[in-house]
Amino acid sequence: MSDVTLDKAPVAPREETPFRRFVSEFMSSKIAVGGLLVFLVIVVVALLAPWIAPQNPYDLGQIDIMDGRLEPGEVGASGITHWLGTDDQGRDMLSGIMYGLRISLTVGAGSALIACLVGASLGLLAAYAGGRTDTVIMRLVDLQLSFPTILAALMILAFLGKGIMNVVIALVIVEWAYYARTVRGSALVERRREYIEAAQCLALPTRRILFRHLLPNCLPPLIVVGTIQVARAIALEATLSFLGLGVPITEPSLGLLIANGYEYMLSGKYWISFYPGVALLVTIVSINLMGDHLRDVLNPRLKK
Amino acid sequence: MTVYLLRRLLQSLLVLVAMSVIVFVGVYAVGDPVEILISPDADQFERERAIRALGLDLPLWQQYLVFVKNALQGDLGRSFVFSEPALQLILQKMPATMELAFGAMFISILIGLPLGLYAGLKPESPGAKVIMAGSILGFSLPTFWVGLMLIMVFAVQLGWLPSTGRGETLYGWSFLTANGLSHLLLPAINLALFKISLVIRLTRSGVRETMLMDYVKFARAKGLSPARVTYVHVFKNILIPVVTVVGLELGSTIAFSVVTESVFAWPGMGKLIIDSINVLDRPVIVAYLLIIVLMFIVINLVVDILYSVLDPRVRLEGQA
Amino acid sequence: MAWKGVALALAGAIGLSAPVSAQSLTMAVGAPVTSLDPHFHQLSPNNAVAGMVFDRLVNTDGQARQVPGLAESWSTVAPDTWEFKLRRGVRFHNGNEFTAEDVAFTFRRVPNVPNSPSSFTAFVRPIREVQVVDSHTIRLRTDGPYPLLPQDMTNIYILDRETHENATTEDFNSGRAAVGTGPFRVVTHRLGDRIEFERNDEYFGDKPHWQRVNYRMIVNDSARTAALLAGDVEFIDQVPTADLSRLRRDDRVHMSEVTGLRIIYLSLDHPREEASPFITDNNGQPLPRNPLRDVRVRRALSMAIDRQAIVDRVMEGAATPSGQFFPPGIFSYVPDLPAPRFDAEGARRLLAEAGFPQGFRITLHGPNDRYPNDGRIIQAIGQMWTRIGVRTAVEAQPWTTFVARAGRQEFSAFLIGWGSNPEGSHPLRNLIATFDRDRGWGASNRGRYSNPQVDALLTEALRTINDGEREQILIRGQRMALEDVAIIPLHIQTNIWAMRRHLRHESRADELSRAQDVKPAR
């Protein structure tokens, strides 16, 4: 190896960058790859919904209540075969699910990502800085965690009006505290470790210690919470819709479709709620299969 | 320790004040309680009378001062809807929610801990995979939907358990009677579902990490029995995250039992608060939130103290 | 998800047996009772329970017609004075005798219930003077002729002076003061959860069948239906329309229904001459004038709605299309005023005539948690309006935020409901009459419609004691307002109760769910 020049090093075929190592480790699990593939299919379906869906379920001019509650496989007045049936408004469920995926993914991933960024930064800061900063942040966390989600969402949505972005904002406000609390918890332990003390002795900048040293070691619990929170955000959005506070009824998310169909469960019109439920489930399971494996890959303590 | 506690107490007071201000402004922004409570055919005189009767004719800041003045004397106001003291109303409903929440926590630990331990110790076994897949279901399914399914299967179709409501009580607790227990079971399972998944996952990841720690390897090398290694060394170590989360979740379980309580017509605080939000019954909303905040503060404090007991590496601030 | 299959596979396979004591009834209602004090909160669920414990001078039958209650007869002895002859030998639950003094006391108490969020004061305000003629005759003097006094008396529950002199609302809620002349007495009360009653064997009217009644509140619709199917309760009200088809097929269940007095309608922005807040042209630019001020546009919007389709597809048949406030057979029903015929072609023509051949854009608002299927109805109307070129966006909100905004005239068009007393002046005065604080008119006229001719007819009706003459005036007033499309009526809801097969129920147009109306099937 000693005669390999620096110039050639980057193009050397078996050179191991951390990213490649990460990719190859991730690829070693069939389940994780399966989860990734399913998730990619879902994302593609969601992105292409306007082109591949049989109907635009948001256009009131295209749906007809005379087609309401058709069973799966029936043909509606407009000549469309409704493979998954229609809801009470005559909305094609398949199209509704495709469009609903877009909204649920935006809401779930968007809110989890933003909440994680905000929460983790504040949690790290609290643990590392300690003192007054810690106090203020943790009291904020207390305040947030003690505020029932539904009330917070009701107030936020009352201020801002209904809408997908507003639901995301509400979920971020509701969820950041979980990340903050989790990161602070593990960071408190890690902070006392020798490697941090060593880094401090080397007089490394605070930002560097925080994000290069402390954060990676707090990642495993953060990823556990994160994967759970994506799922939770999607489910929470469904619950908000159930309580009439979620996305607009003319642009249903998966959760709203389920909530809508919920009322028809007792009367045997299962498809209005069942198929969106399956879509929700598959989405969340695929995210979690990836998340589970990611956690193991990213966990420095599980490395041999 | 005392200094630390005092400081936490002072901070908590600030949180309480902030909370009450937020709620006052928030409810004010959402809507007008009189519009909601008043009979639709009430004329303008009656509307004005009701506004005065509920003390809503004053500017918001004056309403708040009145509230603070009364609150300092232990009076959190009267419910607009029931005309009962808000605090009393909530305390009446508290046992129902408490037993539901504790029931759910109990079930989640009872089921979650052993399953998580198994999944962590034998991560490659088919059983572990089934457990992990099941745990994903636990937090993917919306609570309200699962609640209705539970009612449909166990009450409507099988007829094993009552569908809704709280059963007979003894000293105000329903888990002391067989009838009460049968009413408690379905809602508690419904509420526990999410927590079971959470406990399974936390336990599993904790076990997996701990098994690779040097001290566990060392304990094994010393020739300790696998059972002893598992139950003494591993178990002790994974308790920290589990205790944190379970502690935190107890509070949120109580705060968020709203959905379960409304699906199962469970007469607890959660149902009271969602009903109160729907009619903007501000005194009840404020009192409820203050109680919940107080509860969280206590829980967080306890969790922090437990932390320092369980893991000597963590020291309470102000103690040094 | 797997349960779904299990549940479907088991559906119908397992019969249910509800152990039923012949003497007791467990019923569940969909809206919480907020107080046992009959003068505290004017709210249907409270009135239903008050109707089990207390009595009124004038009771109402299932069709909301006035029938003798604690008063055996009433008449005007002078143009401005009503005389009520009271029933003799009636006793309160605690044995006290009912007399005219109790009536006088009740009228004094009604305006003085502390903290009442919605009092009954409006029903006693017309009374200028109360004159106790003898122990069982009372005269009520009003300012000038006032024909609605007997109607007002159907809202006031009579208390006992001796028992209730200083009784507070809390005393009623604890059950201590919940003492009336009615068919049931309160045994226990758990606020917002359940009330237990036992029969008052001394009741002066028809004795109810049930020795004991367990009155539960289950707000969640599906949970209420499930409780009935599981046999945990034997009787429910406010049957969700989504469950109707299933319950109708189920031979363990019997239903009772009646066309109610609650109308669902659209309110329109009348006062704004210029741009209305949620109306734009097809490019999203504000219109120079408010199209809703043109009666042709209002009529087009009304004609464009296929009411029968909404009733069939959205309401599952649990409503009647309507073009006015009342169903046939109710006092002051307007004859020959059917529900507007669905005519999309005609609607388009009218729009063109009014100068909108290309239509315009509008946002239709509505609540999503107040009336059965409210959010679904506005979506359906959105579809129908869009088809005639009025491109409609639909926005549904929780009632808490919706009602305040509607009351501030923030919307251009919105859906709302109204439960009428069976008397045309009631909707006219509240929904149609010009908003006027001093007269107490138009308090719920959120679209601020104003028509001096209708106001004049209403004034005249409110001075006319003779029922026949008054009815004709009210019919003219209603016809005038509805032909001017002051509001767009959609349908009148059907009140539906469901019960186990062994029960029968005498349905009520006023939606009240009371145990005395439930009897075993024979």
Please provide a written account of the structure.
The complex is a heterotrimer of chains A (304), B (320) and C (522). With 304 residues, chain A is mostly helical. In chain A, 68% of the residues lie in helices and 1% in strands. In chain A, helix 3 packs parallel to helix 6 and helix 6 packs across helix 8. Chain A is elongated. The model of chain B has no long low-confidence stretch (mean pLDDT 82). In chain C, helix 10 packs antiparallel against helix 12, helix 15 runs antiparallel to helix 16 and helix 16 runs antiparallel to helix 17. With 522 residues, chain C is α+β, with helices and mostly antiparallel strands. In chain C, 28% of the residues lie in helices and 24% in strands. The longest helix of chain C is centred in the last third of the chain and has 17 residues. Chain C contains 17 helices and 20 strands. Chain C is globular, with a radius of gyration of 25 Å. In chain C, strand 4 and strand 5 form a beta hairpin. Classes of the chains: A mainly alpha (304), B mainly alpha (320), C alpha+beta (522). Chains in contact: A-B, A-C, B-C. At the A-B interface, helix 4, helix 5, helix 6, helix 8 and helix 9 of A face helix 1, helix 6, helix 7, helix 8 and helix 10 of B.
**Shape, principal axes of CA atoms of chain A:** elongated
Q: Percent of residues of chain A in beta strands?
A: under 5%
Question: What would you give as the CATH superfamily of the largest domain in chain B?
Answer: MetI-like
Structurally, how many domains make up the residues of chain B?
2
The global form of chain B is globular
Radius of gyration of chain A: 23 Å
Instruction: Calculate Rg of chain B over CA atoms.
Output: 24 Å
- Most extensive chain-chain interface: B-C, 59 and 67 residues
Number of alpha- plus pi-helical segments of chain A: 10
- Compressed to H and E, one letter per element, the order of chain B equals HHHHHHHHHHHHH
